[in-house]
Design brief:
The chain is α/β, with parallel strands linked by helices. About 40% of the residues lie in helices and about 15% in strands. Strand 2 (about 110-115), helix 4 and strand 3 form a beta-alpha-beta unit. Bound molecules: S-adenosylmethionine, 6-(5-methyl-2-OXO-imidazolidin-4-yl)-hexanoic acid (DTB) and iron/sulfur cluster.
Length: about 325
């Protein structure tokens, strides 16, 4: 079922049927289960579909930084906030491919290029992105982009260039969305996700916790994700990075157990998907990260930086995985 599976000793043939008809109340009830039972159920499903000691390591690069016209309240790259992010135009493709080559040599199996755009541009800049995708794809790693909204044609061209995944987050529930972003609507996100799916690119779609949403919004986001058919192959769960200068800078810190709950619920609802413990790891203790792994997270971002904010150091991550007896997925880099 999962091509990434290794560690035959623990492998079982998955018998659980994937469901896409989850009811919002069911999701809310799973989310609210007492933690030991929630983690037990998630870990049981995790072992049915995945090798429990393997974590995918992904690396991010910001290929175009800052100056984004959208007003996402969490984001340091919006022109609407002054978070001190230095703007940078589209990077040189050879530089980006070089960074990807180094990452692949260190064993990273997914490389994700992020751009602070409302929508992917037409013309010359899009051609440059395609060149990056072609170059990274030739390294034998999974290639992901997150460029904002896409047209159907752009999705097809990205697929032809070798893109394996497209990240486009729903971020929160439909009900709470308008309190966080006013420059676009939920339906526009869903339309891009459909274009990506239709082009045969795998979907990476998740959200952010800690933006002042209610528990019902967290369940609402997970319900949206789990009723997509097929499920997103990759589900990033981000903890808000509270950046000075953004409207959410003064949000109270999130209880890390909410990350554990959200990851466990995602694992139960979408057992075959890769669930990524994404932004926020620098703010989580090793014990909280460990609980996230127990809850079914099997992917992390590695490298000193996410897009514009810091991430734990490579040595720190290596030490943590080693102390847990967990290993990165094997690389097929060429
Ligand atoms: N501009 C494109 C878009 O929004 O789709 C792609 C880049 S955008 C930075 C990618 C994702 O990063 C957002 O959807 C959001 O989930 C996440 N993100 C941005 N700022 C964040 C923050 N401060 N904390 C956690 N996640 C964040
Ligand atoms: C995702 O869900 N999280 C990543 C990736 N997809 C593109 C981005 C996190 C960004 C955190 C804030 C920053 O570093 O700018
Ligand atoms: Fe722009 Fe993406 Fe940041 Fe929103 S999250 S402001 S769309 S870069």
């Amino acid at each position: 079922m999962n091509s990434a599976f290794s560690g035959a000793a623990q492998q079982t043939i998955p018998v659980t049927q994937l469901r896409h008809d989850w009811k919002k109340e069911e999701v809310a009830a799973i989310y609210a289960t007492p933690l030991p039972g929630l983690v037990y159920r998630a870990q049981t499903l995790h072992r049915e579909f995945h090798a429990p000691d393997r974590v995918q390591t992904c690396q991010l690069i910001s290929i175009k930084t800052g100056g984004c016209p959208e007003d996402c309240a969490y984001c340091p790259q919006s022109v609407h906030h002054d978070a001190g992010v230095e703007r940078e135009g589209l990077l040189d493709p050879q530089h980006v491919i070089g960074v990807a080559r180094d990452a692949a040599a260190r064993g990273v199996t997914r490389f994700c290029m992020g751009a602070a755009w409302r929508e992917a541009p037409q013309g010359h800049e899009f051609e440059i992105v395609l060149e990056m995708v072609r170059g990274v794809s030739s390294l034998g790693v999974e290639v992901c982009c997150t460029l904002g909204m896409l047209t159907n044609e752009q999705a097809v061209r990205l697929k032809e260039a070798g893109l394996t995944a497209y990240n486009h987050n729903l971020d929160t529930s439909p009900e709470f969305y308008g309190s966080i972003i006013t420059t676009r609507v939920y339906d526009e996100r869903l339309r891009t996700l459909a274009a990506v799916r239709q082009a045969g690119i795998t979907v990476c779609c998740g959200g952010i916790l800690g933006m002042g949403e209610k528990e019902s919004d967290r369940a609402g986001l997970l319900h949206q994700l789990a009723t997509l058919n097929p499920h997103p192959e990759s589900v990033p769960i981000n903890m808000l990075v509270r950046v000075e200068g953004t409207p959410l800078a003064a949000m109270p810190p999130l209880d890390p157990l909410e990350m554990v709950r959200a990851i466990a619920t995602a694992r139960i609802l979408m057992p075959a998907s890769r669930v990524r413990l994404a932004a926020g790891r620098k703010q989580l203790s090793p014990e909280a990260v460990t609980l996230c792994f127990l809850a079914g997270a099997n992917s992390i971002f590695v490298g000193e930086k996410l897009l514009t904010t810091p991430n734990p150091g490579v040595d720190e991550d290596e030490q943590l995985l080693q102390s847990l007896g967990m290993k990165p997925l094997e690389s097929h880099a060429v």
